[in-house]
Queue: 4 jobs
Job 1
Amino acid sequence: MSTDLDRYAFLPGAPAFYPTIVASEGCHLITSDGRRILDGAGGAIVGNIGWGRTEVAEAAAAAMSIGYVVPLWPTPSRLALVDELVEHWLPDGFHHVFFTSGGSESTDSAIRLARAYQVAQGRPDRWKVIGRHPSYHGMTLGTIAAASHLGRQKGYEPLLLPFPKVPWDDAEQVAKVFEQEDPATIAGFIAEPITGAAGACLTADDEYWQTVNDLCKEHDIVLIADEVMTGYGRTGLKFGHQHFPMEPDVIVGGKGLGGGYVPLGAVAATDRIAEALRDSGFMYFTFTGNDGACAAGAKVLEILRREHLVERVATEGPHLEARLRAALGDHPAVTDIRGRGFFYGLELNVSRDAVVAAALERNLWVYPAGSGPVADAVMVAPPFTITADEMDTLVATLRDAIDAAPFM
Ligand SMILES: Cc1ncc(COP(=O)(O)O)c(C=O)c1O
């Protein structure tokens, strides 16, 4: 194994800051020098079932020997994953799933789907997809434009399309923007039900979601729930939007769907949306429905069900929240704690990079977050299998790390 860590960095001069990981187990990542790092964020909030699950790797290996099959053709692993999703995960009325290799491809495809739906309905003037500020939907040029993560947009201006934005929390403003933009030009509305790393678990109220939902239904605007972070149990329900009065037409998943073991994303559409595209088609990516990824995804979802892990998030989530509040609720460097399930954001008035680095020095990984109005934050989003002792360690170590971060 090369010890020249600079070699791995894409950009010359990038700091060789992170340890080399050679193994993993449960909620821990194991470094080449034998440290055990408690993974308080499931990697990039992907590791829902925890690490070291050899049965996922075995399922993927068995399916991969098929090699490559053009995405339009069914295979056993593709069929099995669609069955799993339709029968056990997706809300009623969702019988159509388009697979991708991750979150960005999925949200980008959902934007394309909204446009394709409107064109198929004979409404070619509808091209805008409204996003929220702040938000993050990925790093394709389309998703950068639809989202509002100032840090991730920086340097790519002018953006591909001047997609309109609404505030994350203000129902009245949403109604105003719809009117100003003219609903006859709007194809879709894309939203994270609970904001991910752009806002560290900002959560709008029911009135907000009711307004968004009603406006979309009234004008036949495709409502896209970006469940890349919040999907597949992270918040204690199968999907994050199920906490709110929100009935999406399209549900986008990535991250936890493959559990972090494989690059896998999925765009699920209602029968109504899919039916409208019957004659126009919807072009796939070369690796849509990769067999190893589908088999691994189906195994991840089976494990979640077999071990009742979504239910566990619902019952244990409040205990994690209580620990965070008890240890950090009054901390002078923590200005807010929010979220639900195993999905929490801690807004800070110290540097998030300092906190993340101090945590890592203490063998804890938490996820850096924040953009626009949320300057500095970290996220706590452990695997659904985290034990009570591990939660104690996580919270105590995070407190030490925040104590160590200098005020700005
Ligand atoms: C809500 C949301 N959507 C989309 C994406 C993009 O996913 P990916 O990084 O897998 O392309 C992310 C990634 O963090 C995300 O959190």
Job 2
Amino acid sequence: MNQVIEVMGQHRSIRKFKEKPVEEKLVRTILEAAQCASTSNFIQACTIIRVNDPDKRAQIAELAGPQPWVAQCPLFLVFCADLKRSDQACGMCGLEMVKGYTEQFIIATVDAALVAQNTMLAAESLGLGGVYIGGIRNDPQKVCDLLEIPDLVYPVFGMCLGYPDDDPERKPRLPLEIVLKEDRYADPSDDNGLSVYDQTCCEYYGQRGSANRDDNWTQQIGRMMCKEMRPHMKAFLEKKGFEMK
Ligand SMILES: Cc1cc2nc3c(=O)[nH]c(=O)nc-3n(C[C@H](O)[C@H](O)[C@H](O)COP(=O)(O)O)c2cc1C
């Protein structure tokens, strides 16, 4: 097709990296490409914190799981949703930003996610690999303390990047027929389609080289979505200035 689409189709999360550092020039190239992402109303509500300090890395690796790859990867980034800069911009114009709207939370979170996915794609296009680390939200306040993240900014997720020292299989995605609807949200409960996909995932989990297991997609989602999910997030976000009004 073309190289961009080829790279996108090759994505798989990488959690084991060669010790080789990522060249500074490459880091800049990746992050400047990432910044080209679309941004809601040109707000550019994303700040990236690169964590170099081994002690901070170790603490984040621990609270995130533990997830040792956070400490081991050559490049670890934390993507923050940032409304502080907008507040600053308003102040510079002698205006007061209205705060606490759910819409602002969505704008900033989406902006961070778009920059992050551009980062992942740019990195992959240059032969690097990586993995998102939502695990930092296990203890977002500690991440804020470690990285001195102020109010009106919150860490959405981290990302490990580096040269892959692993070659995992690609995880099959839902068939497009299930994900894509035409003109309306038709047939929301297509059990048959999901059963077929379960079979595909079952084969993937059974055949993959490492950590193979007897599992499928609905079981996996069932295990996850039937328990509490980081219930501290609401109070944490409110405290950081992201009320939901
Ligand atoms: C926002 C987000 C947070 C994630 N957090 C973690 C994480 O904390 N640890 C981890 O090992 N993988 C994490 N992942 C990776 C997913 O598990 C992975 O993308 C998914 O299982 C699909 O696999 P693939 O990326 O290999 O295709 C995260 C992915 C996203 C998008």
Job 3
Amino acid sequence: MFLYTQRLLIRNFNASDLEAFLAYRNDPQVAKFQSWSLPYTRENGEALIHEMQDIHTPRKGEWLQLALELKETGELIGDVVFGVKKNDVRQCSVGFTIASACQKNGFATEAMTALLNYLFEEVDMYRVVADCDTENVGSWKTLEKLGFRREAHFVESFTEGKEYRSEYFYGLLQREWRTKAAFRNC
Ligand SMILES: CC(C)(COP(=O)(O)OP(=O)(O)OC[C@H]1O[C@@H](n2cnc3c(N)ncnc32)[C@H](O)[C@@H]1OP(=O)(O)O)[C@@H](O)C(=O)NCCC(=O)NCCS
């Protein structure tokens, strides 16, 4: 699978991504609000890349994590992921990660714009959702910049070690994306 943006090639992972993938997954700043715990092992990285390298169209309940390659250098700078709902093939959740050195350069926005265009216009998704820790400012700012609507604030709803933490839930409909796209193209 390939999507192209101005600066990025969004593609399936392959074995040569392993070292760069392990490097940013093991960065405490990147992992802080994420689901994996540190250290993120080589075995985990190999298994994830192996699982992801041949998936093209995820089915109900499946995920597809895609590599973000900087076109200019061929460097792996992060990934985006979407997971199709178990009971509805037209709904999915999304996530994104950018290596620390490349953050705040618009890469998450650029990659997610291409992914959302693909999901809404090619896959015909009806609704895309995302969630994040309320303290993950970079994540919810990116979601809001993309046009997601904050739909819920769950207070101290999940545990991280012994600490209860809060999360935001976001949603975006196909028709809302299309309206926003029309404005973007004005
Ligand atoms: C969240 C993340 C993907 C954002 O990536 P990015 O490439 O830096 O995002 P962008 O450059 O496209 O920025 C999008 C918007 O968010 C803002 N933003 C990004 N990081 C921010 C931060 N740490 N604090 C405040 N605002 C931030 C940007 O300023 C921009 O808004 P603006 O254009 O109005 O100024 C990145 O910080 C990351 O990988 N974090 C660790 C992994 C993670 O937590 N992923 C999300 C899991 S839910």
Job 4
Amino acid sequence: MRSVLLYLAGAGWSRSLVTNFFLARRAARRFVAGETLDEAVAAARQLNTKGMMVSLDHLGESVHNKEAALSATADYLVLLDAIYANKLDANVSVKLTQLGLDIDESLCVDNMRRILAKASEIGTTVNIDMESSAYTEITLKIFRQLNQEYQNIGTVIQAYLYRSEGDMQQLAQEGGVIRLCKGAYKEPADVAFPEKADVDANYMKLTKAYLSEENRQHRAYLKVATHDPKIIQETIDYAEANGVKPTEFEFQMLYGIRTQTQLELVEKGYRMRVYVPYGTEWYPYFMRRLAERPANIWFIMKNLFTK
Ligand SMILES: Cc1cc2nc3c(=O)[nH]c(=O)nc-3n(C[C@H](O)[C@H](O)[C@H](O)COP(=O)(O)OP(=O)(O)OC[C@H]3O[C@@H](n4cnc5c(N)ncnc54)[C@H](O)[C@@H]3O)c2cc1C
């Protein structure tokens, strides 16, 4: 089921079928704050009042013409203005294929520079999301290049990739700001652990290593992005046992998932950032959320047809 949903996430025919189906649009609202900037600002404001930071994602990926990449960049600049105007405690998350990576690397880097400069002007940060393994190398290369020029940038490492241990070791030495997640794409067994238990074990191994005292001295900062209660508890236990202060790392979760746990972590004094996606291009994001937990399909169907 996971494979089928991840295949459909990239299939154009399925995208137009699903996005034009109004019940699907309603279902997507469980994971997406809305289609407009105003709805995203309202969701972010509400989370801020509950003591949570936010990362706003103006949904979009895999654009194949320059105009679309420039338009996505312009949308991010408007979003940053809105963060400033509304005094939100929020940063932004971007995908490099949304900014033109598949068209021209230098176009993508220039677009990133414009977003980073604006974010820096308003005192916030930009996080580069990680896409499929076809983009890992180039994403890390662009991250490193821009990390030399800007102080306000971070990226993502996926625990399911075999290469991530080596990447994290190097990034820690470079003082990288890293969001660690399990990984949401369909990957072959020669690049990613096929078994969930191995992914979970690797996640914990990478978390502990990144939070070591030596790495923290290099100003390496970790964002523990998971809804997995076991990993969250183990991270807390490890931090407590090793003198890692709650201000020296943060937890991150996705909008609409485990909202009670999000609140509980804030109440316990942990930094919590919620990833808030919005926009009309919600289809692949929505399908990846269904693929993570196919039981969501039945849950959503039940809710749609019983309301
Ligand atoms: C802030 C954030 C940013 C992310 N950025 C990226 C990125 O840049 N690149 C990337 O590849 N992936 C990204 N992801 C997705 C990530 O890789 C995983 O696919 C996703 O978080 C599910 O894994 P998990 O760690 O929650 O653990 P799992 O073991 O999958 O889930 C643990 C528990 O969390 C709950 N849960 C998890 N997913 C769902 C869901 N969809 N619906 C309902 N309940 C759920 C369930 O209760 C489940 O039992 C991000 C995740 C987060 C939280």
